[in-house]
Amino acid sequence: MAKDRTERHAFSDFVTEKTFKNPALYQAWKDYESFVPRAVFSDAGAPSIYSDGMTVDEVHKRFKSQVPSEHFAFESREESLKYTYRSAERMPDSENHYVATIYFHFLERRLFYSEIRIQTDSDLEKNFISEKQKTEWIKNRADLEELEAVQPQTFGLAQMKMQGGMSYELFVPYVDDQGVEHAEFFMFLDNKIALGYSSTLAREFQSERNNLLRNLVAFDQHLRRAQKDTQLEDSITHLTHPFDSFITPQTMENPASRMAYQYYKTLYHNHPPADFNLKELDGRRIEEIQKYFSGPNDPVHMEAGEREDYLFYLFESEEINPSTEKKRQAELKLYFYDGVFTYADIFGLDSYFSENDLLSFNDMLKELPKGTHLEKFEAYEPITMGFAEFKYEDKNHRIILTPQIEASKMKIINYVFIDEVMEYAFATDYTDIKDSIRNAMTQIFMNLTKSEF
Comparing 90 with 52, which gets the higher pLDDT? Predict the structure, then answer.
């Protein structure tokens, strides 16, 4: 039987001294829980979010906090109230206290967002969930009671009113198979996980940006697009990329590449590449991508002529490549034409496999002729060094780069898919591996448009 959550905060049963292990966070929660369920929020999805919602003065007066507030005003018509809590006890072997904050954000002086979170993970006893657990929750759209049963250690909670109802976000740390600590941001709709955003935990605590707020704003944009397409439920239930079942540790052996893919999926769901129609480009601009999407490190911005820009995101895993004795690395590249996001690729910057593991290109072509669906291609589990995608005339064009054997030599085979159906494949020299994706996409685009990409 579902628990009655109407009289308290929606997460009152979830928050315990085990989930909010940080003593300052649990102390702050008592104030947060007593006020926020009664607070009036503006609706981010309403025609005008300024028509209702409590004012800055009303929140300041009615929120009974154990600590004083700090008021911040910004040039973008935004304001915030911040409350900083420090525990009475000190961290082990330290003079510092545990710290947590409550944060209310206002637009045109009206409340539309609130959050509670810790400010550092230093010296906390860690009991993080596994990557497998995190992935299962997202895949199965786990409800809040399933999380309550596990009691995952949690670093923060945020909420914002959207489409007439309240949406929530949980900041839950997890650890991957290599022991790297990550931050997962679970988006909840109707008390079920609808989406997850990932970041490395170290970057989350180094970042000066409010990622909890940024994530909920991006989630709201996703809901608006889905509602516009009258596919809201389906869109939330199947938040996947077509390569989800294809990209595994067996096919994409570089863990940094798999990490880049997980980050890219977040971008793909909320800000997919625009249709590459040079006459009428309509999509996310580079400024928006930089604002709402971040990798584990700040991107390198490169201008290529008057109309082209690139953002390069570097990913590094803790796994060491035995052949180089260096950490495994991968790169996510975003391409912008006239400032609009139109193309993306992921490429492993190092590899570690034996030629004995590679498939024969000629054998593959016999088994997988033109018209083969991606599902059949997946069954062969070819080692994959990268992939790229763009959209043209409402069709998704994707390319998978796999090292294979052709005429007793190792080559890069470029498999070209249009809407998950293989159109053709061609080989390039392995020595040109750094330029393989660029060269392949140039050839594909020139075939399509008779123009250079």
Answer: 52
- Residue 81 tokens read as 């109230």
Contact predicate 216/195, CB 8 Å: no
Closest by CA to 181, choosing from 157, 197, 206, 198, is 198
Interacting residues of 401 by C-beta distance below 8 A, sequence separation 6+: 347, 384, 385, 386, 387, 412, 413, 414, 415, 436, 437, 440
Residue 390 near residue 276 (C-beta atoms within 8 A): yes
> Do 429 and 452 contact (CB within 8 A), yes or no?
no
Query: Domains of the chain by range and CATH?
Result: 23-234 (no CATH), 255-449 (3.10.450)
- Structure confidence by residue, pLDDT tens digits, 161-188: 887 788 999 999 999 887 888 889 999 9
Give me the residues paired with residue 341 across strands. 336
Total Cβ atoms within 10 A of residue 109: 16
| Gap between the Cα atoms of 272 and 320, Å rounded | 32
Q: Which residues contact 266 (CB under 8 A, 6 or more apart)?
A: 197, 198, 293
pLDDT confidence band for 281 (50 / 70 / 90): low
pTM more than 0.70: no
Query: In the predicted model, is pLDDT for residue 235 greater than 60?
Result: no
Nearby residues of 383 by Cβ (< 8 Å), 6 or more positions away:
251, 253, 353, 357, 358, 402, 403
| Bridge pairing between strands 129-130 and 165-175 | parallel
Percentage of the residues of the chain whose pLDDT score is greater than 90: 28
3-state secondary structure of 25: helix
